[in-house]
Amino acid sequence: MRAAVLHGVGDLRVEELEDLAPGPGEVLLGIESALTCGTDRKAYLRGHPRYLRSGGVLGHEYAGRILATGRGVTSVKEGDRVIAANSAPCGGCFQCERERWSLCENLTYVFGGFAEALVVPSVVVEHNLHLLPETLPMEIAPIYEPLACALKAVRDLAPQASSQALVLGAGALGLLLTAALARRGVEVTVLDPHPDRLDLAHGYGATAVIAARKESSDVATVRATINAGRGPELVIEAVGQPAAWALALEMSCAGGAVCLFGGCAAGSSVELDTHRVHYEEVVVRGSHHHDPFAVAEAIELLQDRSVPWKQLIGGEVGLDDLERVLAGELYPTALKVAVRA
Ligand SMILES: [Zn+2]
Ligand SMILES: [Zn+2]
């Protein structure tokens, strides 16, 4: 079985691994579709302890077909097209009992999408394995993963329909957050410096876009154009840089909510204006990862053909060219690249 294995920073090798077989409660998934994501690039360029601990096969956005089932598995059979999510909560810990599944203290992660196949652990088979509807093409199925993260973030904010939101950043997640908000009837403005990405934002449900220029003038523009000078009631940051977090905290209207969604480099910090939080009652929260309910919602939303999901995928490579994609040599401006094993 061929797989792209990360051995350390900047050291990715395509290797022939031993064929896999599912144990009791597990299934063997043949990967038929896999997509790159910013996290894969970060793992290649900076290292990623979770990947390296898991054996190093990269790829966490994938979907495929059941090749074999282990003893005791009755929910799927050989040949089924499925999404086996890239994680599953245990269902029994302190956080799971409080329905905060993304914070599960025993969360099982599954990597290994950039390979011909992977073994899906029993906890995922039990809690987060979903049959792919006929109407959902395999090539876009892996988008369920970032979309589920976006849907969970929006669910956490519980927005009211017709409220005004701002999404900072029109990368893949900014666009998916826009789709998740628009689905709830929220009016979404997207802020980003790249005109081509702002063009895409309309297809994902943005009602307005603003070309980002300079941080201070962007705050003034956002406030002036949304809610008659007050600013948006919801702000979601999808850039993952402390400067963008700071901007998000400045932009929301009094009584609004800010979701700091983009993960920043370890050790980052941002100053918080106490006046905004106390006197202006701005709610600040984060959101991370997804859970089985968000995955199910993502699978449903992906069947909406009015959203141009395929536009996220800017190229396709075999395993041997994956390293050039992660190094930024191939398809440097693509939001995602499909990887064939
Ligand atoms: Zn991802
Ligand atoms: Zn748990």
Cα-atom radius of gyration: 20 Å
Please report the distance between the alpha carbons of the first and last residues.
Answer: 9 Å
How many separate structural domains? 2
CATH architecture annotation name of the largest domain: Alpha-Beta Complex
Q: What portion of residues is helical? A: 25-40%
Mean pLDDT: 95
Per DSSP, the total helix count is: 12
- Give the low-pLDDT segments: none
What's the CATH class label of the largest domain? Alpha Beta
The computed structural class is alpha/beta
Q: Looking at this structure, what is the CATH superfamily of the largest domain?
A: Medium-chain alcohol dehydrogenases, catalytic domain
Major sheet attributes: 6 strands, parallel
Strand content: 15-25%
- SSE arrangement, N to C: EEEHHEEEHEEHEHEHEHEHEHEHEHEHE
Bound compounds, please?
zinc ion
Provide a compact summary of the structure.
With 341 residues, this protein is α/β, with parallel strands linked by helices. It contains 12 helices and 17 strands.
